[in-house]
Amino acid sequence: MNTADDQLRQRRSTSLAPSYQLFYDEPVHLVRGEGVWVYDTDGNRFLDCYNNVPSVGHAHPQVVAALAAQAGLLNTHTRYLHENVVDLAERLGAILPGDLNTCIFVCTGTEANDLAVQIARTVTGHHGVIVTERSYHGNSDLVGKLSTDSYPAAERPDWLGVVEPPNTYRGPFHVPDQDMGQKYAALVGDAIADLADLGHGAAAMLVDTSWDSNGVLIAPDDYVSRSAELIRAHGGLVISDEVQSGYCRMGRHFWGHMHYGIVPDIVTIGKPMGAGHPVAAVVTTPEIAAAFAERRNYFNTFGGNPVSAAVALAVLDVIDDEQLLDNATSTGATLGLGLSEIANRYEIVGTVQGRGLFWGLDMVNEQATRQPIAYADAKRIATMLRHRGILAGVTGRYSNVLKIRPPLVFEPEHVGILLTELDAVLDGFEPLGGDDARALGAEW
Ligand SMILES: Cc1ncc(COP(=O)(O)O)c(C=O)c1O
């Protein structure tokens, strides 16, 4: 690290709270981005295989222009008439299934999930919420409790039902088990029964259909629909947290839940929606929105402001104009094939799961036992990639999963670069072991 970066790091550590973490022992100091590339202070470029927030690519000119134009004209809030926010709500309603066409705009994924759970509790009269073990949904007081990866299990409230994620590689039911969807859904049924016994009832099941923090999973086809049926039969709602899985991320469909054939009651959207600008949303049915409005007031100063709405509209335009859903599907298929081919050649890769432009490589010390590599080893792999110009992440319940989740403008030539560098890193890589228990919430 050069002296200037060292000084900046010291200033940062005295002026920012210790909760802030930096990726890499030798942090990357980025100053510019374009498409799938980011550049550091020395002009070194890195292929961004990690960041989903700049969904349509870093500094997309159309998004930047939309932001600048509206910021130069007017920025207020939703208590005045403005076309942008209405256009945006209509656009989202048109690409969501069923009656999901009534929006409330917020600024972060956390706020979206917080509001979604408030809505579910208000309209169902129940209090319990079901999430997966080692989930992440955000960081407010309420949503922080729903993020089981962020605090000790002993502090969980009794209104929280925590179920095993549907991990068909290393979960309690795994290949070659039969009827895994039914078996994992039965765990949701058990959690619903427990919440009923405690007098909370189940207000909602909150599900991220990429299962990012669980290590990027492909659930059995019928798992989500069976779970949804159970929760609805007990008067609860299905909230699909599309902060990770939405916006074409998983290829083939715009939304993650569509891969599982359900129409949720509430959808929450965040990160990719503004390609870096903080804009997020809750979308639900007119009936649910009306039932909530009868009992609760909701206003969000910045949510749905004209500038954020202009940015979000520009992101949707770029997705259409550049056919990024098709790209996520086709480039994602190339990426998946390439990663599987690498997995076949290296003992350390236990399995590859994912779809579209979101993949996880579950790394193991030994194929037979599926014992996860230590967090320290996973970090070493990510760090070696960084030194070869590739930004990737680490995720999963055991922090052993290499996470690949590039901007949607990732193309086959970028897949080639990533695979070449990953191959070079894995060739001869020896796990050393180390701190297998990662710090809580220390997702990369
Ligand atoms: C699935 C999921 N939901 C919600 C959030 C919270 O979003 P935000 O950081 O914008 O509050 C995250 C953030 O990582 C997430 O991954």
Structure, explained:
- This protein has 444 residues and is of the alpha/beta class.
- The protein has 13 helices and 16 strands.
- The chain has two domains: 3-56 and 323-426, Aspartate Aminotransferase, domain 1; 62-321, Type I PLP-dependent aspartate aminotransferase-like (Major domain) (Aspartate Aminotransferase, domain 2, 3-Layer(aba) Sandwich), CATH 3.40.640.10.
- The chain has a seven-stranded mixed β-sheet with strand order 4-10-9-8-7-5-6, sandwiched between helices. Strands 11, 12, 13, 15 and 16 form a five-stranded antiparallel β-sheet that branches.
- A hairpin with a 4-residue loop joins β2 (37-40) and β3.
- The protein is globular and about 60 Å long.
- The mean pLDDT is 96.
In brief:
With 444 residues, this protein is an alpha/beta fold.
How is this fold's topology laid out?
Elements: H1 3-15, E1 30-34, E2 37-40, E3 45-48, H2 61-71, H3 83-95, E4 102-106, H4 109-124, E5 128-132, H5 141-146, E6 160-163, H6 180-197, E7 202-207, H7 223-233, E8 237-241, H8 242-245, E9 266-269, E10 280-284, H9 286-295, H10 306-321, H11 324-345, E11 349-355, E12 358-366, E13 371-372, H12 375-387, E14 390-391, E15 393-395, E16 401-404, H13 412-426
Parallel strand pairs: 3-14, 5-6, 5-7, 7-8, 8-9
Antiparallel strand pairs: 1-2, 2-3, 4-10, 9-10, 11-12, 12-13, 12-16, 15-16
The structure holds pyridoxal-5'-phosphate (PLP).
